[in-house]
Amino acid sequence: LMPHTPGSLHLLDDDYLGQAAHMLSKVDTWNFDIFLFDRLTNGNSLVTLMCHLFNVCGLIHHFQLDMVKLHRFLGMVQEDYHSHNPYHNAVHAADVTQAMYCYIKETKLAEQLTPLDVFLGLMAAAAHDVDHPGVNQPFLIKTRHHLASLYQNTSVLESHHWRSTVGMLRESGLLSHLPADMSQDIEQQLGSLILATDINRQNEFLITLREHLDNQDMDLQLATHRHFILQIALKCADVCNPCREWELSRQWSERVCEEFYRQGDLERKFDLEISPLCDQQTDSVPAIQIGFISYIVEPLFEEWQRFTEPSMLSQIMMGHLHKNKACWSRLRYVHTLAETKTHPHVEEPEPEGGQEEAEDIP
């Protein structure tokens, strides 16, 4: 269960290992608590999860992977995430990977995906934010960061995540036993998947998905269509936090906003214009979350539900999404009410969604 990553000793007692193993037996359930799993594995959630998933999916046997090289590669990926980032850290990567596993087990997909598809989907999920600096692309551009000039201000972070992943794949020698053209194809497809997580390309993917669903011309026997659906699945997994149950969802929301606020503090410190959503004094967590759900998450998951229909998981996710949005609406009302008490000249707000939404607050 516990991989020995370089430079780390896993001195966990049997009780913790037993609990972690028990959690892994339910790794395909949507209420999987990645925060608890990370504590039980002593901060090794990503490595432990990936080793387990590669095993249960038969990928180690199918690709004849060397276990020492696999542990080395996964250890490098996990170490390359910044643990001091509140959101973009190895626990987020593990969370996205667990969601991705749930999605590739959906009936519509599971029947059609090849071992290579599953390998690519899990690998891209695990590495999609590797070495994330905890600030966004506009920040890198306006501070003239070397990554921004290297990738010409386009998909800067995603390009870096991909190229870092390729570097670690080559350094670990994980794919060195495969034919050169196959390992090259894997690297390119990983790039295409990771680059799809660029939020600036959201509409491009959403429009294409809608067209396929409207025309009913999605053919998963075609490699190009399977790859497109893997891109969509990874995009869903990357932003699925609002589709988790409230307690897990709320923690992720607070973490991502904390990361935004830290960027805003940096911008204030260096006398730069504060980026949207990054000003703690004006951008509340509830307001940020309602905007994120309305403009990014809901449109994407509505189409994902159409694609996976009839899917119990999609119903569960949409149920959580609507409840969580109602919770944030109520909290925004409470937050705005508190603001009006502090600043009496501000007009008192009307509660959003009426009493029914208020009852949704846990």
From TrEMBL:
Active site residues of this protein: 88 (proton donor)
PDEase domain boundaries: 12-335
Superkingdom to which the source organism belongs: Eukaryota
CDD domains for the chain: HDc (cd00077)
Ligand binding (Zn(2+) 1): 92, 128-129, 238
GO MF terms, alphabetically ordered: 3',5'-cyclic-AMP phosphodiesterase activity; metal ion binding
Pfam family, one: PDEase_I
InterPro entries, A to Z: HD/PDEase_dom, PDEase, PDEase_catalytic_dom, PDEase_catalytic_dom_sf, PDEase_CS
UniProt-annotated stretches for the region Disordered: 340-362
Reactions catalysed, as given in the entry: 3',5'-cyclic AMP + H2O = AMP + H(+)
SMART domains named among the record's database cross-references: HDc
Organism phylogeny: Eukaryota, Metazoa, Chordata, Craniata, Vertebrata
UniProt record, GO biological process: signal transduction
The protein's Enzyme Commission number: 3.1.4.53
Biased amino acid composition, Acidic residues: 349-362
Entry's family note: Belongs to the cyclic nucleotide phosphodiesterase family. PDE7 subfamily.
Keywords: cAMP, Hydrolase, Metal-binding
Pathway(s) of this molecule: Purine metabolism; 3',5'-cyclic AMP degradation; AMP from 3',5'-cyclic AMP: step 1/1
Binding, AMP: 88-92, 129, 238, 289
Annotated PANTHER family: CYCLIC NUCLEOTIDE PHOSPHODIESTERASE (PTHR11347)
Positions of Zn(2+) 2 binding: 129
Classification via SUPFAM superfamilies: HD-domain/PDEase-like
Cofactor(s) the protein requires to work: a divalent metal cation
Parts of the chain that traverse the membrane: none
Name the record gives this protein: 3',5'-cyclic-AMP phosphodiesterase
